[in-house]
């Protein structure tokens, strides 16, 4: 248990060069660490050579962390439950509220800067204890690109876990496939070992083929960001060919191959198709062509076509894209039910975004690493936890990167270790470089200017059920203002609220769809 030390004020703790590493407590499977023993060794050795730097690192003991306590001790760290001597305390996920010490600096993924309701007690505790909070998600370079993220690891684990389940699902449908011998990501000691296992089943496919009754096996990947890149990285270890969306009908009919290959060659490889927004929607006006800028500005001018152009030919959908309610869904329940009635070859969906009730409407819950799949029976509209029976299987795990805890921690710590020396030694906010100042939500218990919109949003937030795109709340108002753009990552939300208040107006936030990557825009409705 932590020892609270109200007598030690921030002027003696902030910048004292002592770092604490939290034991992760939020999820049973969370085995990542913000800094590995090798990072700690370099920081401690490097800090000793400077007048101000990292003097000591104290690590909370953990029996489930990917790196053992003894490895941290060997690296020169101290092992202790008590982090009260630390001016800077770092973790991956948020600590329990009772573990937050006063007058310290903390760095972790806090999920508070969009006024997320479930994490407002955490923000209240931080203010109450005069804490300085730095959020990894907000550390961006001058171009606005996130510097600390796990997207590729989510994509890698999400595809391996899906292939693992695909083997079981095909078996329940009466087909033996090489996928059956692949384990889940966490069952391998390293990413390299998991990749070797994927390569091995790829060799089996290339040598012995896949049952013709389930071929061609087509994977549709949505999006082109880090998550999609990670998933495609694993897919490319298998014998494969990528095809354009317009070629899918030919492929399904076996017309895209030379005649002497049509009966045999399809069974010896898989097919991939990377799907972008032009494959998901089409202008409602048939005389117009798809225009991405126009689509983002006026999604109401477009209708969904993914269920016509892509889904009828896909064996698997790997969903890696962010979605907002103002856009058409990728796949609605009605569309999926009709597709399955028409004999669509879709076996399953890997929803790596884990966007509940989002772009894939039937995904109504997240799943756990120990039970990663559920089955949705389209004929009965019922959900099941087994693999046997009608319908499609779905993976929706929201903590995928921890399955590669060792490599994910190494990747994360390589970047974080460049920042912690400044965070651990700075006596004031102005001593920090701009990318760290921007990532500071609260400093000594007070919100920094960039984040002063949070209480304004909290105070005016109206709880609404998900609304259909472009519908207005059934409520009186004088003016409805729609804001679209980089509202949070470039902090335009502050300017918008200032303009309204300067003009003598008051507002209620009635809808807020927040972009989850630097390339995504956010959308808010104020009345």
State the gist of this model.
By secondary structure, the protein is of the alpha/beta class. The protein has 16 helices and 21 strands.
What does this structure look like?
One of its GO terms (biological process) is lysine biosynthetic process via aminoadipic acid. It comes from Aegilops tauschii subsp. strangulata (Goatgrass). One of its GO terms (cellular component) is cytoplasm. Keywords: NAD, Oxidoreductase. By secondary structure, this protein is of the alpha/beta class. It has helices at residues 10-13, 37-48, 69-74, 120-128, 151-172, 191-208, 226-235, 248-253, 277-280, 292-297, 306-309, 333-341, 405-425, 434-437, 453-460, 492-502, and strands at residues 18-21, 56-59, 78-79, 88-90, 105-108, 132-135, 218-222, 240-242, 270-275, 281-283, 302-304, 316-319, 348-351, 373-377, 382-384, 392-395, 440-443, 446-447, 481-485, 509-513, 522-526. Helix 2 (37-48) runs parallel beside helix 13 and helix 5 (151-172) crosses helix 7. The longest helix is centred in the first third of the chain and has 22 residues, at 151-172. It starts with 9 loop residues before the first helix and ends with a strand. Residues 1-11, 255-266, 462-475 and 515-520 have low confidence and may be disordered.
Q: Biggest sheet: strands side by side, in what order? A: 3-2-1-4-5-6-17-18
User: Biggest sheet: strands, sense, closure?
Assistant: 8 strands, mixed
Class computed from helices, strands and strand pairing: alpha/beta
What fraction of the residues are assigned to beta strands by DSSP?
15-25%
Total discrete domains: 3
Stretches with pLDDT under 50, minimum 5 residues: 1-11, 255-266, 462-475, 515-520
Count, helices: 16
Distance between the termini: 46 Å
Mean model confidence by pLDDT: 87
Query: What's the CATH H-level homologous superfamily of the largest domain?
Result: NAD(P)-binding Rossmann-like Domain
Helix residue percentage: 25-40%
């Amino acid at each position: 248990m932590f020892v609270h030390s109200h007598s030690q004020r921030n002027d003696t703790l902030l910048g004292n060069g002592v770092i604490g590493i939290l034991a992760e407590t939020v999820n049973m499977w969370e085995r990542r660490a913000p800094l590995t023993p090798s990072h700690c060794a370099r920081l401690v050795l490097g800090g000793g050579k400077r007048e101000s730097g990292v003097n000591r690192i104290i690590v909370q003991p953990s029996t489930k962390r990917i790196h053992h306590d003894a490895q941290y001790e060997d690296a020169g760290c101290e092992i202790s439950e008590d982090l009260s001597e630390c001016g800077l305390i770092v973790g991956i996920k948020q600590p329990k509220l009772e573990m937050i010490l006063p007058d310290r600096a903390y760095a972790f993924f806090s999920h508070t800067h969009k006024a997320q309701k479930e994490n407002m007690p955490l923000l209240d505790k931080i203010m109450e204890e005069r804490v300085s909070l730095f959020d990894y998600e907000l550390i961006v370079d001058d171009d606005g690109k996130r510097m600390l993220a796990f997207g590729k690891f989510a994509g890698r684990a999400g595809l391996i876990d899906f292939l693992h389940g695909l083997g079981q699902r095909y078996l329940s449908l009466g087909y033996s496939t090489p996928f059956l011998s692949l384990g889940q990501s966490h069952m391998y000691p390293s990413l390299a070992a998991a990749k070797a296992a994927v390569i091995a089943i790829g060799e089996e496919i290339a040598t012995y083929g896949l049952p013709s009754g389930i071929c061609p096996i087509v994977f549709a990947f949505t999006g082109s960001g880090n998550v999609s890149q990670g998933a495609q990285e694993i897919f490319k270890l298998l014998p494969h060919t990528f095809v354009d969306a317009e070629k899918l009908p030919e492929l399904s009919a076996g017309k895209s191959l030379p005649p002497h290959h049509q009966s045999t060659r399809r069974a010896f490889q898989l097919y991939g198709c990377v799907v972008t927004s032009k494959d998901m929607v089409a202008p409602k006006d048939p005389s117009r062509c798809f225009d991405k800028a126009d689509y983002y500005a006026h999604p109401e001018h477009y209708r969904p076509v993914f269920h016509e152009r892509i889904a009828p030919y896909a064996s698997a959908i790997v969903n890696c894209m962010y979605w907002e309610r103002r856009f058409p869904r990728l796949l609605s329940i009605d569309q999926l039910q009709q597709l399955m009635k028409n004999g669509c070859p879709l076996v399953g969906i890997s929803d790596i975004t884990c966007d509940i009730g989002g772009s894939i409407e039937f995904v109504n819950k997240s799943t756990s690493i120990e039970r990663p799949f559920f089955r949705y029976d389209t004929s009965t509209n019922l959900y099941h936890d087994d693999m046997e029976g009608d319908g499609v299987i779905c993976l929706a795990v929201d903590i995928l990167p921890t399955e590669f805890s060792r490599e994910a921690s190494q990747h994360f710590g390589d970047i974080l270790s460049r920042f912690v020396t400044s965070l651990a030694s700075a006596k004031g906010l102005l001593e920090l470089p701009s990318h760290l100042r921007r990532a500071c939500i609260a400093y000594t218990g007070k919100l920094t200017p960039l984040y002063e919109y949070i209480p304004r949003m909290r105070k005016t937030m109206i709880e609404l059920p998900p609304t259909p795109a472009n519908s207005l709340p059934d409520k009186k108002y004088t003016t409805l203002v729609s804001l679209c753009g980089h509202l949070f990552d470039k902090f335009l939300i502050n300017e918008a609220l200032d303009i309204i208040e300067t003009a003598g107006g008051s507002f209620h936030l009635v809808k807020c769809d927040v972009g989850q990557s630097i390339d995504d825009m956010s959308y808010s409705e104020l009345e």
